[in-house]
TrEMBL record:
Source superkingdom: Bacteria
Record-linked InterPro entries: YbaK/aa-tRNA-synt-asso_dom_sf, YbaK/aa-tRNA-synth-assoc-dom
SUPFAM superfamilies xrefs: YbaK/ProRS associated domain
UniProt domain YbaK/aminoacyl-tRNA synthetase-associated: residue ranges: 53-176
Organism annotation: Streptomyces luteosporeus
A family per Pfam: tRNA_edit
Identification of the protein by name: YbaK/EbsC family protein
Gene3D superfamilies per record: YbaK/aminoacyl-tRNA synthetase-associated domain
Length: 188
């Protein structure tokens, strides 16, 4: 069934689609996660836009597509270490802020040390492209820390798992993802 092209709440995009209708614009784990959502209305509210992968990084993307930085959210993969054990988690914060990895994240994850995971590790574990990693479709069991400002945003733009496209969805949906925890002052 072909649906009419939805409009986006911000930005300047040629076209937008319900993400569930365009799995070709999503990394495999993201498409699978959207298919598994049991809330059809929530899944239908997730849009995908096809974009230029050469401007996928936040500042360049914002300028190219007129997307305010305060609605752009970044998802980063964290490596949390305690002794010889390394666990992974993801954090989501607005592009206008910085995630407090050394204090807030480290303590939330019960780690002695927390740092951004190396690019090749993040890509290998998520099955997503660097520059497109998103909280939708993270590996089973990974903690997901969502900054309260992201969860409160009417809509945010995040990665799709691929550099060539982005998702637009209500911030509150990120707080409903598996293993998500909304954290006040995760970023500042």
């Amino acid at each position: 069934m072909i649906r009419p092209s939805p409009t986006t709440p911000f930005g300047r995009f040629e076209k937008a689609w319900p993400a569930a209708d365009r799995s070709d614009l999503l990394a495999a784990p993201v498409a699978a996660a959207l298919r598994q959502w049991d809330d059809a209305a929530a899944a239908a509210s997730v849009l995908v836009v096809d974009t230029d992968p050469e401007v996928a990084d936040t500042a360049d993307f914002s300028a190219a597509y007129d997307v305010p930085l305060d609605v752009s959210a970044n998802c980063v993969v964290i490596a949390a270490k305690r002794g010889q054990d390394v666990t992974y988690a993801a954090c989501v914060a607005l592009a206008t802020t910085r995630i407090d990895v050394n204090s807030t994240v480290r303590k939330r994850l019960g780690a002695r040390k927390a740092s951004f995971a190396p690019m090749d590790t993040a890509v290998a574990h998520t099955g997503m492209e660097y520059g497109g990693i998103t909280p939708v479709g993270l590996p089973e069991g990974w903690p997901l820390l969502v900054d309260a400002a992201v969860a409160a945003a009417p809509y945010v733009l995040i990665g799709s798992g691929l550099r060539r496209s982005k998702l637009i969805l209500p911030g509150a949906l990120l707080a409903r993802l598996p293993h998500a925890e909304v954290v006040t002052a995760l970023a500042g």
